[in-house]
Amino acid sequence: MLINRIKQIPLYVLAIIILIFTGLPFLIMINSSFKSQLEFMTSPWSLPDAFTLSNYSSVMSSDFFNYFFNSLIVSAISVVLVIVLSAMASYPLARMKFKLNRPLFMLFLVGMMIPIHTTLIPIYLLTIKIGLYDTIWGLIGPYVAFALPISVVIFTMFLQDIPKELEESAKIDGCGHFKLFWKILFPLLTPAVSTVAIYNFIHIWNEFVFALVLTNSFENYTLPLGLREFYGEFSVNVPGIMAALTLSSLPLLLVYFVAQEKIVKGIAAGSVKG
């Protein structure tokens, strides 16, 4: 028992080092958000001499919540669509045998390799053509499209691990494909759903390029674009940016802490086959 604990010491040391490297920037961000601009410039690494909430007040008095709710609406709708569409697409790939099964799966794998920057011009022109330019709704299509490949792969891997005996017994009882998937198989995909939801929510919440190209007015900006408001012409309000970043990261932290157990189980289950 003692020997096993001694063998685990390097793992704990490595975990502590990783925690420091990942947690320190977040602590510095929170610490800086309670400083004035002058105090930050003179002593950026020390604790605040006097904690001030002026940065948070200025953030809340700006259009921050407009950007926040735009990001929340776009992210929530996009994630729901990705889960539904990718789960339905993965069912025939994982459970049905047909000639195009393998080529279609490989097509989704290829879709993961397409750089988004190569699609900006055609998506920009298409968005203008269908009348969705400079609207938050015009962002949902590209977000869903680029999230589908990896989501389909994740769901397909999980579905392949579910015993086929469940499917066969359900078909004997008269279950069709639609009822079989949504009533029996989909409830078993909770770890995969959590993994797909968190991964895509974080990616969409932080997405900048499509939001920059497909929106043009302040009322339709998402958070990554709205944070530029704290950049002045000749100076940068660093504590204000830190306060805005702290507030904008709260939904990500909340969602992750609520679903982290399912995410870990999903990653572990998806990494083991057979």
UniProtKB/TrEMBL annotation:
<protein>
    <submittedName>
        <fullName>Carbohydrate ABC transporter permease</fullName>
    </submittedName>
</protein>
<feature type="transmembrane region" description="Helical">
    <location>
        <begin position="103"/>
        <end position="124"/>
    </location>
</feature>
<dbReference type="Pfam" id="PF00528">
    <property type="entry name" value="BPD_transp_1"/>
</dbReference>
<feature type="transmembrane region" description="Helical">
    <location>
        <begin position="67"/>
        <end position="91"/>
    </location>
</feature>
<dbReference type="InterPro" id="IPR000515">
    <property type="entry name" value="MetI-like"/>
</dbReference>
<comment type="similarity">
    <text>Belongs to the binding-protein-dependent transport system permease family.</text>
</comment>
<feature type="domain" description="ABC transmembrane type-1">
    <location>
        <begin position="68"/>
        <end position="259"/>
    </location>
</feature>
<dbReference type="GO" id="GO:0055085">
    <property type="term" value="P:transmembrane transport"/>
</dbReference>
<feature type="transmembrane region" description="Helical">
    <location>
        <begin position="12"/>
        <end position="34"/>
    </location>
</feature>
<dbReference type="InterPro" id="IPR035906">
    <property type="entry name" value="MetI-like_sf"/>
</dbReference>
<keyword id="KW-1133">Transmembrane helix</keyword>
<dbReference type="GO" id="GO:0005886">
    <property type="term" value="C:plasma membrane"/>
</dbReference>
<keyword id="KW-0813">Transport</keyword>
<keyword id="KW-0472">Membrane</keyword>
<feature type="transmembrane region" description="Helical">
    <location>
        <begin position="238"/>
        <end position="259"/>
    </location>
</feature>
<feature type="transmembrane region" description="Helical">
    <location>
        <begin position="180"/>
        <end position="202"/>
    </location>
</feature>
<keyword id="KW-1003">Cell membrane</keyword>
<keyword id="KW-0812">Transmembrane</keyword>
<feature type="transmembrane region" description="Helical">
    <location>
        <begin position="136"/>
        <end position="159"/>
    </location>
</feature>
